[in-house]
Amino acid sequence: MKAVELNNVSMKYNEQCVLQNINFSIEEKDFMAIIGPNGGGKSTLLKIILGILTPNNGEVKVFGREPKHARDLTGYLPQNLSFDRDFPINVYETVLTGRYHGLFKGYNKNDKEAVLCALKNVEMKDLIDRQISKLSGGQMQRVFIARAIVREPKLLLMDEPMASIDPEMQRSFYELMSQLKNKMAIVLVSHDVGAVSTHVDKIACLNRELFYHGPVENAADGLEEIYHCPIDLISHGIPHRVLREH
Amino acid sequence: MLEFFQYQFMQKALVAAVLVSVACGVVGSYVVIKRIVSLSGAISHAAFGGVGLGYFLGVNPVLAAIPFSIASAIAIGGVKQKVNISEDTAIGILWSVGMAIGVIFINLTPGYAPDLFSYLFGSILTVGNIDLYIMFVLDLIIIATVYLFRREFLAISFDEEFSKVVGLPALLIYMLLLALVALSVVVLIKIVGVILLIALFTIPAAISKQYTYNLRKLMILATIVGIILTSLGLILSYIFNLASGATIVMVLAVAFTISYYLKD
Ligand SMILES: Nc1ncnc2c1ncn2[C@@H]1O[C@H](COP(=O)(O)OP(=O)(O)OP(=O)(O)O)[C@@H](O)[C@H]1O
Ligand SMILES: [Mg+2]
Fold first, then answer.
1. Which of A50, A123, A195, B254 is at 20 to 30 A from B127, Cα to Cα?
2. Which CATH number is B213's domain given?
């Protein structure tokens, strides 16, 4: 079964078309990056897959179900959050909300262990009692990454996970992703084409339309099309793969 | 004789202060952290429509305010789904239309509306035992609901979008929270009045928020702060013969200022 299937999906905000005729699918163990310029519709696409937004046209299936009914299978890292500056919640409680089971169902021992494990993975276990807004931007981002993976989802959607993450942590983030990719489909939205392309297996180039979707090796033309300039796929030091020259 | 009245008054004032402060401490904490202060202001003003309806139908205005303010809370929640009206605009409409409905019902009611002033600005002197019983029952409902839905309320207050993603019925829970705000409005209506009661939702919680980062502790602390300040306000209002709501608000404002400077 496919993790995600989109057929002819179009989305408009107030008559302005932000996604047009998107057809693509994500396999169960895909590790994919969605790349595109600002306003290209990447966040919108993730929200459609999550069932937060309903497209004007087309069909969306997540593990064969309506997106709203597949929520027990998805993990999500939002791009921006707005919450009260001194909201009374600590790191532990924040991640625990990712384990929500349903009305009148409390959190159990497994949930607590999963939270500790997720926090360990993002190296935030030491700050477990810290109030959330007393964290730096990057630390906060790590907590929200933990909240996304703590559900042990089958489909992990991350919107700009690298925002305000330092290089050291980026390395361990990709290490974590490579451990997780055997268990779930992972989709990253990123601007840093060079960094992301050395790690993921597939790329989707999105700017209102889907210009390319497939293995990283052949993505150069698609990237050129969405950014209107040639993009060097291996801008970050040692090439991990042999990529087409342009 | 005078002493007996004073004693009776003090007793009633203390009971009223506790009942009011439980609603404010618990629901007010959510109002502050979820930043729905102006929305709660709108619900409180809309409750006046229910008061007017009560006069018109000849039933207890406090009881009439319950369905009325809950309905207005749910209407706001419904508007949130429709993208073409902003919540801000809906608040403005609800705020004034609720008041207007109340005024028209009172106009239509023959004769003089007794206690009208107390519904607007609060008056402990008009609070009867029935009112205290109603407040008590509403407090129990509020506490039970918050206990049962504490996980959901925390999740939607912190990050509503994410709460949907984990399968939480966010809109329903949001409406439930607004319904609790509406019930709390009814608890407060006679003591502080619809015009001023938003101060009781916000100030005790805002003072307490400076001292704790745990929601449960915040609620408890806000309740205690509320009891102390509300009792003080009620006693002062009695001594100086002022509207109780206005006096309580002034006491809260002074306390907030002091706590703010003490903190630094
Ligand atoms: N709530 C909204 N109402 C109206 N228009 C919106 C809304 N959200 C997004 N848009 C528009 O939709 C388009 C796509 O937005 P989206 O957030 O999906 O882009 P993105 O690819 O995630 O961009 P970025 O790289 O900046 O995060 C933009 O042109 C934006 O202006
Ligand atoms: Mg985006």
1. B254
2. 1.10.3470.10
